[in-house]
Amino acid sequence: MIIANWKMNGSKELIKDWMDFVSQNIEINQEKECILCPPTCYLYFTGTLIKQSYEGIKLGSQHCDSVLSAPLTGGTNSQMLEDAGCEFVIIGHSEQRVHLKESNQILSDKLKSSIGMNLKPIFCIGETLRQKEANQTNDILIQQLDAIPSNLLQKCIIAYEPVWAIGTGENAEISYIEEIHSFIKEELKNKSNSTNYISVVYGGSVNLENCKEIYSSDKVDGLLIGGASLDSNTFTKIFNIS
Ligand code: PGA
């Protein structure tokens, strides 16, 4: 799966143009899903367009609140996301972990709430540069994975996004990605006590130059792309060569 995380970018016009171009030029394949995550305010608009004309593209949200009902100004719950046509939701992105001070308890509640509405969470984990340099990567990843109730693991997609690689232009080396993905996959196997497959995708400065090498690894089940997903032409090329 190739996931476009638009962060706080875009407009109705850009979304429409992007979907026109991408849907006409990507080679859709059951195995490789194309997921667009626009800002929350454009979800309903995007979901409606997908239903009308772009069924090859799937809709994901960048945000979901942890409860269905609360007097929460600015809140968006999983029921609203489902109503807008979302099938996926990004949870635990490092930018939100910092900005919203999300604890494992909050993340766990978000996972339960979104899975309860049949949304598929894309659960992000990853270490900071300081943690990497202190050899704490594995401990941090274990701690972050602990937010997922073990009975819900099979319903999640895990996104490994080293914080130091996000938006920096410095993607992790393929050998490092493979080492960490193997570690995550082993942890997931132990934690879920099952051999069912859980996808682990990579994110962090994925671009046209590095996408093929990363995606072609058998340890990598997809890509979560920020900056390079905004341009429809670049995204289409990444999708098709990956
Ligand atoms: P980037 O962002 O591709 O711009 O590094 C990835 C992400 O934050 O999901």
CATH topology: TIM Barrel
| Inertia-based shape | globular
Order of helices and strands: EHEHEHEHHEHHEHEHEH
The unique ligands bound to this protein are:
2-phosphoglycolic acid
Describe the structure.
The chain is of the alpha/beta class and 242 residues long. The protein has one domain: Aldolase class I (TIM Barrel). It is built from 10 helices and 8 strands. It has an 8-stranded parallel barrel with strand order 1-2-3-4-5-6-7-8, surrounded by 4 helices. Helix 9 (211-215) links the parallel strand 7 (200-203) and strand 8. The longest helix has 19 residues, at 174-192. 2-phosphoglycolic acid binds at residues 5, 161, 166-167, 203-206, 224-228.
Task: Provide keyphrases for this structure.
single chain, 242 residues, alpha/beta, TIM Barrel, 8-stranded parallel barrel, 10 helices, binds 2-phosphoglycolic acid
Compact summary:
By secondary structure, the chain is α/β, with parallel strands linked by helices. It is built from 10 helices and 8 strands.
How are the SSEs placed, and which strands pair?
Elements lengths: L1 E4 L6 H14 L8 E4 L5 H11 L3 E5 L16 H6 L4 E4 L2 H6 L4 H13 L3 E6 L3 H5 L3 H9 L11 E4 L13 H19 L7 E4 L7 H5 L7 E3 L6 H10 L1
Parallel strand pairs: 1-2, 1-8, 2-3, 3-4, 4-5, 5-6, 6-7, 7-8
The chain binds 2-phosphoglycolic acid.
The site of 2-phosphoglycolic acid has 13 residues, from strand 8.
